[in-house]
């Protein structure tokens, strides 16, 4: 399946990536060749096959709903790009 | 001191032939001498290593040691290490100091290993040649013009060039086994869920698994004994106690039933790899095993299904890198969307962005059934193929890679060519089975690996089969001239 430049721009936006207009066509070509590889799956009939999401069909293990971690806000925020009064700072969201 | 296996080093430490501090200094000086050539390490943790070595020597003096106490190890830079830079070979995390330890690191620390540093890898473990690293390509110790394989290429090169005694790796589609084959060493991927993924930076959560990269199957068993088993911090880590992997290493192979996948002997397999495989099968026959061909009829679809499932999971996992809480943030964002987009576009390399986009596309409205559900259906067919084959055989043995290590730059112009490098290894991850690569030959001075695949959670059998092979051959003892 061949992707157009406009498809790449839409996918990039969904993934919150910026793709330069100059490289969009090359990205489209490369992804299209990968989709050709992926499309080999269509050669097999799978109508009655149940999808396998996890190799052992396992179910989620649960633990008691109790607090096990201690509050380490300051320690964990030491590595943040921008913090003020214990809050993460980002560009203004509401005008 | 160097060039020995962990088992040998452990015996020497026990006999007092040298201390862990002396051994660690020897490794650190080798790293200083050779890392410039191979680029196997992203970060060398010299101070930490010497402190851990001192602690290990004291522990040994008190008689509180185990087989790994004082053994110099390297961790793939995908494992979080507290207060140590953990980059995943990405600009995105080039300034990330982890606030906690991965369970694998925690358990090896508890066993008394000495951490020499963090090894290079493909960015976010996405690659088969270790050329996508933000910190530059790793070179193969057998021929620096060639790739070491990927994504655990730094760990494999470090073990092969003896810049550590043993290393950790991770394997999502072949990332332990393929570099082990290219570097002439032993690489072991346990069953999905055998080892905790806590603190191991996620690529594809239903496929990722940690494992040892070592000089022998015995060394892999020693590391497995330290890291395998349940972990309350990872709910996908199975709640079943791991056996003692050393206990069964010397079991006889008399009566072992080996299956060889017909589809892996077909077109595409290099003649030199096939002849090494046939020679290895003769060795197994001489040890009492029987050989028969088995069918994995859907194995040719494994790469296609993988390149939907792995990117889909990656696109979700990597959405956490948004420039808000940690990692790279672009300069002077004009608004929130600009900050997300530019932080991610400047922070990720092109292969990572490509896979995020494939995954985003496969999961997007209108395409989900045709790609994601279809791939999961193929995944079940692949799993069923293995279930059927294992009705008649105990282990499956075939090639790890189609050929020996290729040259730097040879395959990175076309992503599809690179993806097909993992044609024999990917199905094992889709089925969640244990797999390993052991050296079994050489062609024009480059090592050849063969792949052993076991039943669910039958790691002990694989290590036993590999160990018996290594007791009767010497391919695993061959080392490059560094």
Secondary-structure element order of chain A, as H and E?
HHHEE
How many E-type strands of chain B? 11
- Terminal Cα separation of chain A, in Å? 42 Å
Radius of gyration of chain B: 21 Å
What count of domains describes the coordinates of chain B? 2
Assign a percent range to the helix content of chain A: 25-40%
How confident overall, as mean pLDDT of chain B?
A: 97
C-alpha end-to-end distance of chain B? 15 Å
Helix content of chain B: 25-40%
Quaternary organization: heterodimer
Write up what this structure looks like.
The complex is a heterodimer of chains A (95) and B (482). In chain A, 35% of the residues lie in helices and 4% in strands. With 95 residues, chain A is mainly alpha-helical. In chain A, helix 1 crosses helix 2. The longest helix of chain A has 18 residues. In chain B, helix 5 packs parallel to helix 6, helix 9 packs across helix 11 and helix 9 packs across helix 12. Chain B is 38% helix and 13% strand. With 482 residues, chain B is of the alpha/beta class. Chain B is built from 15 helices and 11 strands. The mean pLDDT of chain B is 97. In chain B, 63% of the residues are buried. Chain B folds into 2 domains: 334 residues, Amidase signature (AS) domain (Amidase signature (AS) enzymes), CATH 3.90.1300; 78 residues, no CATH class. Classes of the chains: A mainly alpha (95), B alpha/beta (482). At the A-B interface, helix 1, helix 2 and helix 3 of A face helix 9, helix 10, helix 11, helix 12 and helix 13 of B.
List the helices and strands and how they pair.
The complex is a heterodimer of chains A (95) and B (482).
Chain A: H1 5-14, H2 21-38, H3 73-77, E1 83-84, E2 87-88
Antiparallel strand pairs in A: 1-2
Helix pairs in contact in A: 1-2
Chain B: H1 6-15, H2 20-38, E1 41-44, H3 46-61, E2 72-76, H4 103-111, E3 114-119, H5 153-160, E4 166-171, H6 177-183, E5 186-189, E6 209-214, H7 217-227, E7 257-261, H8 271-286, E8 290-294, H9 302-317, H10 336-347, H11 350-363, H12 368-389, E9 395-399, H13 415-419, H14 426-431, E10 435-443, E11 446-454, H15 459-472
Parallel strand pairs in B: 2-3, 2-4, 7-8, 7-9
Antiparallel strand pairs in B: 1-3, 4-6, 5-6, 5-10, 9-11, 10-11
Helix pairs in contact in B: 2-3, 5-6, 7-15, 9-11, 9-12
């Amino acid at each position: 399946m061949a992707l157009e430049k406009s498809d790449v721009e839409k996918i990039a936006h969904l993934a919150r990536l910026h793709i330069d207009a100059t490289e969009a066509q090359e990205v489209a070509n490369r992804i299209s060749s990968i989709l050709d590889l992926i499309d080999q799956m269509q050669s097999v009939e799978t109508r009655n096959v149940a999808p396998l999401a996890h190799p052992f069909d396992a179910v989620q293990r649960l633990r008691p709903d109790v607090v096990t971690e201690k509050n380490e806000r300051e320690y964990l925020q030491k590595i943040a790009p921008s913090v003020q009064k214990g809050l993460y700072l980002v560009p203004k969201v509401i005008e | 001191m160097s060039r020995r296996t962990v088992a040998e080093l452990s015996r020497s430490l026990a006999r007092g032939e040298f201390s862990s501090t002396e051994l660690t200094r020897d490794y650190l000086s080798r790293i200083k001498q050779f890392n410039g050539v191979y680029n196997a390490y992203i970060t060398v943790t010299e101070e930490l290593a010497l402190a851990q070595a001192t602690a290990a020597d004291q522990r040994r003096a008190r008689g509180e040691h185990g087989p790994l106490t004082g053994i110099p190890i390297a961790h793939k830079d995908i494992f979080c290490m507290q207060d140590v830079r953990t980059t995943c070979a990405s600009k995105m995390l080039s300034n990330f100091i982890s606030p906690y330890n991965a369970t694998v690191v925690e358990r090896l620390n508890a066993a008394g290993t000495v951490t020499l540093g963090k090894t290079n890898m493909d960015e976010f473990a996405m690659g088969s040649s270790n050329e996508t690293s933000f910190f530059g390509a790793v070179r193969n110790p057998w021929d620096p013009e060639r790739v070491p394989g990927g994504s655990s290429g730094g760990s494999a090169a470090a073990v092969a060039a003896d810049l550590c005694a043993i290393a950790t790796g991770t394997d999502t589609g072949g990332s332990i086994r393929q570099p082990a084959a290219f570097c002439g060493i032993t690489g072991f991927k346990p069953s999905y869920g055998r080892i905790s993924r806590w603190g191991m930076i996620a690529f594809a959560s239903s496929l990722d698994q940690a494992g040892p990269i070592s000089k022998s199957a015995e060394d892999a068993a020693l590391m497995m004994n330290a890291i395998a088993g349940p972990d309350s911090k990872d709910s996908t880590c199975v709640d079943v106690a791991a056996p003692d992997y050393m206990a069964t290493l010397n079991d006889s192979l008399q009566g072992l039933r080996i299956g060889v996948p017909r589809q892996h002997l077909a077109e595409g397999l290099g003649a030199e790899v096939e002849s090494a495989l046939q020679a290895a099968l003769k060795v197994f026959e001489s040890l009492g095993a029987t050989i028969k061909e088995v069918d994995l009829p859907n194995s040719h679809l494994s790469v296609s299904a993988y390149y939907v499932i792995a990117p889909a999971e990656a696109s979700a996992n990597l959405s956490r890198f948004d420039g808000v809480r940690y990692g790279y943030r672009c300069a002077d964002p004009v608004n929130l969307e600009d900050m997300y987009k530019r932080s991610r576009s400047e922070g990720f390399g092109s292969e990572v962005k490509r896979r995020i986009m494939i995954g985003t596309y496969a999961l997007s409205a209108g395409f989900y059934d045709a790609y994601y559900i279809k791939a999961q259906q193929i995944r079940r067919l692949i799993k069923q193929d293995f279930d059927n084959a294992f009705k008649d055989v105990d282990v499956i043995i075939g090639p790890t890679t189609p050929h020996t290590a290729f040259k730097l730059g040879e395959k990175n112009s076309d992503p599809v060519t690179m993806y097909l490098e993992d044609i024999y290894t990917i199905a094992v991850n889709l089925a969640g089975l244990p797999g390993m690569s052991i050296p079994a030959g050489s062609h024009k001075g480059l090592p050849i690996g063969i792949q052993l695949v076991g039943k669910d959670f039958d790691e002990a059998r694989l290590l036993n089969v590999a160990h018996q092979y290594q007791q009767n051959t010497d391919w695993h003892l061959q080392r490059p001239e560094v």
